[in-house]
Amino acid sequence: MPIVTIQVTREGTKPGNESVTAEEKAQLIKGVSQLLLDVLNKPLEATFVIIEEVDTENWGWGGLPTDVYRRQRGLKPP
């Protein structure tokens, strides 16, 4: 019984979205479950997928909070 945890920052992937959408989460769950079936022969009904959204202020990158790191690197949020 595999359990897969996916951690993502709580921000949208498209303008106007403040977090990962329900449709995107469904695609992640389907894709990860199918991958475990294809690679390890784990049945879909035995696979659990947990998606955790983390506020960017609670996510560090390069020794800095994500927002600070992105500003220093000139990166824009997704």
TrEMBL record:
Annotated 4-oxalocrotonate tautomerase-like domain residues: 2-64
UniProt GO molecular function: isomerase activity
PANTHER family: 2-HYDROXYMUCONATE TAUTOMERASE (PTHR35530:SF1), TAUTOMERASE-RELATED (PTHR35530)
Root EC class: isomerase
Signal peptide start-end: none
Enzyme Commission code(s) on record: 5.3.2.-
Superkingdom classification of source: Bacteria
Protein name as it appears in the record: Tautomerase
Family: Belongs to the 4-oxalocrotonate tautomerase family.
Taxonomic source organism: Paraburkholderia lacunae
Taxonomic path: Bacteria, Pseudomonadati, Pseudomonadota, Betaproteobacteria, Burkholderiales
InterPro entries the record matches: 4-OT, 4-OT-like_dom, Tautomerase/MIF_sf
Active-site residues, as the UniProt record annotates them: P2 (proton acceptor)
Key words of the record: Isomerase
